[in-house]
């Protein structure tokens, strides 16, 4: 692969410091490529390895343009903005023109991340970056330290979770475009919040996907559940790899993003000697060296394979952390949630204890669900490398009706689940609204324009939940109401139990941040004792200066637990979710 | 995965020391499994993980048997012998009954392997293991130290290269079956020859393939060019992995095979945390520890990825060596062979020099043929880890007419190519008959019985060579004559130039074995100087005691080369292929 430019974006239309444009597009099989902007038709010059390029003063920031590849008019695969959506022209953007004021910002230690996952379209009434910005003080007050924004790459229409994005470099126009994104990150940094961006490198969405017209971005060597697999190891892959590495670098460098959450990396198939994820890690390390800034890479991965988060020197891909869905599954079953589908592999409280101890519940046992031995050991992996949660967009939204925990569990159980996440040695993540026990659902919604695709999505969604139809109809993903119903209700956190839950979360978060034994992410200084009959777990965590004891009662009744201790150093109660102030039955002694 | 039994075969029908049979077959979705032998119908008892088992005295070695899976009569997937071919019953074999007399045998150092690849059916007039045994003295006299036998697992009919095998545990009945194989290995060892067996774990053949009736041996997650991919990482893979690991262990333990050559491991797709090849390596290491014997694993791999031969501690799969087709390609182009197909990536003499230096010609450069950057560095890899050749079954047989070098290159060039292989720091391999410049071709042949399959193979073969039809018809792979024409002509090595070539090879091999600088496989003690204009390469190799200088002239004319040296230690001529005794034009000074 040609040496990657770490300092500058090189694909699409970019401006140098004199506002002179450099145009560069990969179209290896084309015989003619032109750029059309206004009345200008600029012929690009063929370069090595299938690139077409031009330096020109004929295009300025704010101009719209098309590429014409062998006569076919197409938007730019590296477009930064699609002002008229996925089928329209691209707009030239000067990423360097934003006036950053976050020079004082320093990315916190990963161990200090308390993550808040949000979806731009449904987080606020406005449904855009401005809407998020207006809530930053609220989030600071809640105590979180990092927001995680679901994917913002341009998708069809203005309602989508973000995983149907088809312009990895373009920030969704209806959210506020690239400048809106820069503005949001700048505001976050100035308020002391880190920003994690969710990016999707395992597939591209089905509508507005013009990549095949440019080059072999896809391969049929592998499948993904969501469409053609990205070509990371087949003919032409050098340039595809470059494209995605450049995408990573752009977000971190030009948008000041602190960390990327990479969607479903288990669906990124790559038999190259150096896996694309490792190559990404290595380039991010180069960027960090050059900029002096710290960035984190967090993988969503369901392979329970420590290789993804092991350092490169140990044969790993070098990601900083990964999501642990299995902690969620074990917690949910322990809480009395249903046990169908992938939950069948989880036995509840014993597996929750297992998750506290190993991160991966399956770390080498036979999985009935997967019908194979599954997972690696996690010895030596720090707790900060595992992101845990009691809810997230998938676990909520992939239910037929998108019910949050508030609709499925008692108030008491919701409190217990929140506590279970917060006392772990892992990185805690909240899903927007869980902190006030939001009652609105988070459902699956799209706003495609392709009628066949709309029908296919509708049918797919119905088929997925065929067994549940007795319990109601799957909401129509294309309906505006499905989207609107999924918005947070910002009136709730001021009311009754919702306000109480909000204060409960604030208190928990503050404990997590202030108590040395909770702040630590060392997994060695922890003991986990499970009593399956009683449905209780006793967790101890300690540092040199402090030892905390956490009693988790998943049963429906009050219980007495022998917690040992001695008279010289009696236990002191830090927090008690059963107290009447938290709407509990009665305070423990 | 359940702990693998290292000491005993556990699948199929096996006999303990009291000749009592243990029957075990994996059929996870079956509701009833019986074993039928003679008039006995024995019901197997369901075990954990989909196995069905029985201990019985109702079946003896030599009895034929079927499994009946939910009423369907099928041969045993772990059959050791198919006396009536792939569609017939299996025969119970007591592998422990063979009377081994090779207790004194010790597998040589890998660096001392001089390999002779042969195909059992066409090597001798008899076309079986006995036929090989009768030639062992010839092979010893030639100087080779290891024979490499193309796959012997049961295939349809009695004419096949072996890559259509469908019973990985069954030794081809027409070759002499398992006892014939044991007899051959025993004879080899008693004569001082190591035995490498070619095994195929990337697919199973198209005819007689009953695996799907037993369990999920295949996955549609990946493709291979030859049929369904083996399921090494999908649901049910634990038992498939066990099956192939047991196959490896059986050949090494029960057949005393010294090394396995594993076919096209690049087509073994496995995203498990521990790759099946690494798991195989680890089990072979366990076997070696238990038996005190040494075994080698040699991969055929076209990925130029050192991971396959790096040790496990360095993140590799731990294979001992791999084939280097690129040495062949570079050599062939340097020799003036055609440059179409995969040869387009090779420029001749400069790439040959490159191969001497790096093993992989492509070790990180852009490959036009593959359209991507290709290959890893090979620093630190010993020369004994690369197997090189100027011909092999594929390079000969995958030509439309199966011509050997004798039909394509001058006598002089054949000699040069032989020398080029033998002076390398790598493991040399000959393809049967090349040592006497055999003139018969080695063509592609099959003996399927499925008419549709026969037609498909015929058509596929014709299509593959569509561009070459002007130069003649592709031989019919199903015709007996194609097979017969591919047999070695053992009259030749006694005649004229053929005898001379044989003696030439003997002399070369003896130099390789006796000269310290040639014996060594250290790649550091070597210099390679290429002159593209003159089409010459000068190679120096040395040890503390000796320095040898090799002059390779790929041009059509005599050339003078300045070889330096000084008067105190003048060069002494060891060998000169241009001498009249080798039918050369004139001896060098």
Describe the fold and architecture:
- 2 copies of one chain form a homodimer.
- With 589 residues, the first copy, chain A, is α/β, with parallel strands linked by helices.
- The first copy, chain A, folds into 3 domains: 12-97, Immunoglobulins (Immunoglobulin-like); 115-464 and 472-511, Glycosidases (TIM Barrel), CATH 3.20.20; 526-582, no CATH class.
- Helix content of chain A is 25%, strand content 20%.
- The first copy, chain A, is built from 14 helices and 26 strands.
- An 8-stranded parallel beta barrel of chain A has the order 10-11-14-17-18-19-22-23, surrounded by 4 helices. In chain A, strands 3, 4, 7, 8 and 9 form a 5-stranded antiparallel β-sheet that branches. The first copy, chain A, has a 4-stranded antiparallel β-sheet with strand order 1-2-6-5, with no helix packed on it.
- In chain A, α6 (276-291) links the parallel β17 (259-262) and β18.
- In chain A, α7 (325-334) runs antiparallel to α8.
- Chain A is globular and about 85 Å long.
- The termini of chain A are far apart.
- The mean pLDDT of chain A is 95.
- Chain A binds chain B through residues 1, 49, 221-223, 233-238, 266, 269, 271, 273-274, 303-307, 314-315, 366, 370-373, 375-376, and chain B through 1, 49, 221-223, 233-238, 266, 269, 271, 273-274, 303-307, 314-315, 366, 370-373, 375-376.
């Amino acid at each position: 692969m040609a040496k990657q430019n770490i300092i500058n974006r090189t694909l699409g239309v970019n401006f140098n410091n004199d506002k002179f444009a450099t145009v560069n597009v990969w179209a290896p099989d084309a015989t003619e490529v032109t750029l059309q902007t206004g009345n200008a038709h600029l012929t690009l010059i063929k370069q090595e390895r299938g690139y077409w390029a031009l330096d020109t003063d004929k295009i300025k920031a704010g101009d719209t343009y098309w590429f014409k590849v062998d006569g076919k008019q197409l938007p730019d695969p590296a477009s930064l903005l699609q002002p008229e959506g996925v089928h329209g022209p691209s707009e030239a953007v000067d990423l360097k023109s934003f006036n950053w004021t976050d020079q004082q910002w320093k990315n916190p230690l990963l161990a200090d991340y308390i993550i808040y996952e949000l979806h731009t379209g449904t987080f606020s009434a406005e449904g855009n970056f401005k809407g998020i910005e207006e809530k930053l003080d609220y989030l600071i007050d809640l105590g979180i330290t990092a927001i995680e924004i679901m994917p913002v790459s341009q998708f069809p229409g203005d309602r989508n979770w973000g995983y149907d994005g088809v312009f990895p470099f373009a920030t969704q126009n209806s959210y506020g475009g690239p400048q809106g994104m820069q503005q949001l990150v700048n505001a976050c940094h100035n308020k002391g919040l880190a920003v994690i961006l969710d990016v999707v490198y395992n597939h591209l969405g089905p509508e507005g996907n013009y990549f095949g017209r440019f080059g072999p971005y896809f391969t049929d060597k592998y499948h993904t559940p969501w469409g053609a697999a990205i070509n990371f190891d087949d003919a032409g892959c050098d340039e595809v790899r470059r494209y995605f590495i450049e995408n990573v670098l752009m977000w971190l460098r030009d948008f000041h993003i602190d960390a990327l959450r990479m969607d479903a990396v288990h669906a990124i198939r790559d038999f190259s000697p150096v896996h694309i994820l490792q190559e990404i890690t290595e380039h991010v390390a180069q960027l960090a060296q050059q900029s002096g800034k710290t960035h984190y890479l967090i993988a969503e991965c369901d392979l329970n394979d420590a290789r993804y988060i092991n350092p490169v020197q140990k044969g790993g891909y070098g990601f900083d952390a990964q999501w642990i869905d299995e902690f969620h599954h074990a917690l949910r079953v322990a809480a009395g949630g249903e046990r169908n589908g992938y939950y069948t592999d989880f036995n509840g409280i014993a597996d929750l204890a297992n998750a506290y101890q190993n991160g991966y519940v399956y770390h080498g046992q036979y999985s009935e669900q997967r019908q194979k031995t599954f997972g690696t050991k996690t010895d030596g992996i720090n707790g900060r490398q595992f992101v845990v949660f009691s809810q997230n967009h998938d676990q909520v939204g992939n239910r037929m009706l998108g019910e949050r925990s508030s609709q499925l569990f008692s108030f008491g159980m919701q409190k217990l689940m929140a506590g279970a996440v917060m006392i772990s040695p892992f990185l805690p993540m909240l899903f927007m609204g869980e902190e006030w026990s939001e009652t609105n659902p988070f459902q699956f919604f799209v706003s495609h324009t392709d009628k066949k695709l709309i029908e296919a999505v509708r049918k797919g969604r119905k088929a997925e939940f065929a067994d549940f139809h007795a319990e109601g109809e799957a909401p129509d993903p294309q309906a505006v109401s499905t989207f609107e119903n999924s918005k947070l209700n910002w009136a709730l956190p001021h009311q009754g139990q919702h306000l109480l839950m909000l204060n409960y979360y604030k208190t928990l978060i503050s404990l997590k941040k202030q108590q040395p034994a909770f702040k630590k992410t060392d997994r060695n200084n922890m003991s986990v004792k499970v009593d399956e009959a009683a449905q209780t777990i006793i967790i101890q965590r300690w540092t040199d200066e402090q030892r905390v004891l956490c009693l988790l009662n998943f049963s429906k009744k009050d219980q007495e637990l022998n917690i040992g201790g001695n008279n010289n150093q009696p236990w002191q109660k830090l927090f008690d979710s059963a107290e009447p102030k938290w709407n509990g039955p009665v305070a423990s002694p």
